[in-house]
Write a structure and sequence with these properties.
The chain is α/β, with parallel strands linked by helices. 30% of the residues lie in helices and 27% in strands. A hairpin with a 2-residue loop joins strand 2 and strand 3. Bound molecules: guanosine-5'-diphosphate (GDP) and magnesium ion. Magnesium ion binds next to helix 1. One of its GO terms (molecular function) is GTPase activity.
Length: 180
């Protein structure tokens, strides 16, 4: 039989960037246009198979509001992986993502696997042509990629709405988890 590895994963990022929506897409392949804000944190699990190993993701989806920020260490303290999420149409959320990366580097596990996730990619695409609409994007792909390169992060642009690259984020993390 295949080995099963549990991976404790935490989602961090400003409120409304789509953290809960990414989890809903990954766990239930679903999307809700008006998702209610997360209070405190939510816990979900999802198993997936990568090559010869089975990974059970134990997912802590945190609330992004400032009043919950002091709770975040409870969730990232023992995490083996983190998704730091921003909204590519909201520059302030990218600044916040950079702060989360710094906080993780200072306080989380030294070998934590971090994926920087630039969400809501669908919002910058034209429905007719499928091409990017000029000016729709407020955080360039280079800004995201540069931060990822500087800090040694995985980097994906995603859409929880269309499911673009959502499984890929979790698969890339799973591939980096050492066998035990
Ligand atoms: P959270 O506070 O980071 O957990 O964000 P939510 O998952 O609650 O999402 C906030 C709002 O953004 C909701 O109305 C979602 O439907 C919407 N949303 C989340 N992800 C996407 C996405 O990829 N594209 C679009 N267009 N909207 C999204
Ligand atoms: Mg949420």
């Amino acid at each position: 039989h295949t080995k099963q590895t549990s991976v404790k994963l935490v989602l961090l990022g400003e409120a409304a960037v789509g953290k809960s929506s990414l989890v809903l897409r990954f766990v239930s392949n679903d999307f809700q246009e008006n998702k209610e804000p997360t209070i405190g944190a939510a816990f979900l699990t999802q198993r997936c198979t990568i090559g010869s190993k089975t990974i059970k993701f134990e997912i802590w989806d945190t609330a992004g509001q400032e009043r919950f920020a002091n709770l975040a260490p409870l969730y990232y303290r023992n995490a083996q992986a983190a998704l730091v999420v921003y909204d590519i149409t909201k520059p302030a959320s990218f600044i916040k993502a950079r702060r989360w990366v710094n906080e993780l580097r200072e306080n989380a596990n030294k070998n934590i696997i971090i994926a920087l996730v630039a969400n809501k990619y669908d919002l910058v695409l034209s429905e007719e042509s499928g091409e990017e609409v000029d000016g729709a994007r407020k955080v360039s792909i280079e800004e995201g990629q540069n931060l990822a390169d500087e800090e040694g992060l995985l980097f994906f642009e995603t859409s929880a709405k269309t499911s673009y690259n959502v499984n890929e984020v979790f698969m890339a993390i799973g591939e980096k988890i050492p066998d035990n």
